[in-house]
Amino acid sequence: MSKSYKIGVIKGDGIGPEIIDEAIKVLDAVSVKEGFTLRYEEMLLGGAAIDETGVPLPDETIQGVKKCDAVLFGAIGGPKWDNLERHLRPETGLLGLRKEMGTFANLRPAMVYDELVNASTLKPEVIRGVDIMVVRELTGGIYFGQPRAIEGDKAYNTMVYTREEVERIAVVAFDIAMKRNKRVCSVDKANVLEVSQFWREIVEEIAKDYPEVELTHMYVDNAAMQLIRAPKQFDVILTGNIFGDILSDAASMLSGSIGLLPSASTGKGVGLYEPIHGSAPDIAGQGIANPLATISSASMMLRYALGEEKAADRIDEAIKKALADGYRTGDLGDYDAKEICSCSEIGDIIADYASK
User: Fold this and answer.
1) Which of 147, 162, 241, 274 has the highest CB neighbour count under 10 A?
2) Which CATH class is domain 1-103+261-356?
């Protein structure tokens, strides 16, 4: 009897529905080839949920994701909901969902495809061969710290980390490094922040359990500069929530387009797999969105959540072949393109390659 998995599907807002549809197309192709079944259940989050239910994170979604083997997510937000109170904003729904799911580790790979080495604004010799994994703590830090408020002529947020939060994210980073090039760079601001001093001390403690892994430390401002100056020096970057949010977006541009890179949010239970880009409402519905980051996120879901390594490899190789054969979406059209494809056309091509 073939294996069957239940996948929660959150299409979200903007280009979310378009890119998720292409990822599902590719997933269906490889599942048939590799002999397993995927059962999808759609759920609401973000602006779509606000329009339907009045809240960005309905209880039905919270309960639904916990019954799934993994969740594939598109993107949320847009100008339509920008003027709502903070607790009703689409982004608050996503933060809440991550917290409910216990997905404390955000894995954001940043790699440069040989076929797109000229797509980056950096020189080819600087970025060729870049392969970085950013491990971002996702449910602590300043985004969640209390107290927080706007009071008259001042406003404040609080950056808080507990020992448990730092230990568990450090373990994730070191475990990943053991399967890569055995180097971890922990990024903080320990020269001015007590919470970063605390972070650094605990990371050094965890490092003792991984004698094969080289640990270095770097201040976040220097790390931002080094990502641009000499990105190949990095293997695994371990960092907190706000620093990881900023650095992973910066790292994504090494590849030439934010539309190329996936992410995985994992932790205590069900994982959430999503592209790192936003909902791009300005191009929604035009069929020109780049679905490659979402398709790559589906590959990460197969690999990390379901253990379907062969199916994940099929997707990764299909993406590389499509790029090598000159198929590009509009955002990559200036770089050795043989054919400019719509969102659905590139999905068709990758699904076809992945099924062979």
Assistant:
1) 274
2) alpha beta
334 has catalytic annotation: no
- Please, where are the H alpha helices in the chain? 16-34, 47-53, 59-65, 90-101, 124-127, 163-178, 194-207, 220-229, 241-252, 292-300, 309-324, 343-354
102 in Cβ contact with 138 (< 8 Å): no
- Is 221 tagged catalytic? yes
Which residue among 13, 188, 235, 245 is the active-site one? 245
189 catalytic per annotation:
yes
pLDDT tens track for 22-74:
999 999 999 999 999 999 999 999 999 999 999 999 999 999 999 999 999 99
Q: What is the pTM of this model?
A: 0.85
Catalytic residue flag (residue 143):
yes
pLDDT tens by residue, 136-168? 999 899 999 999 999 999 999 999 999 999 999
In CATH, what number does 120-255 get?
Answer: 3.40.718.10
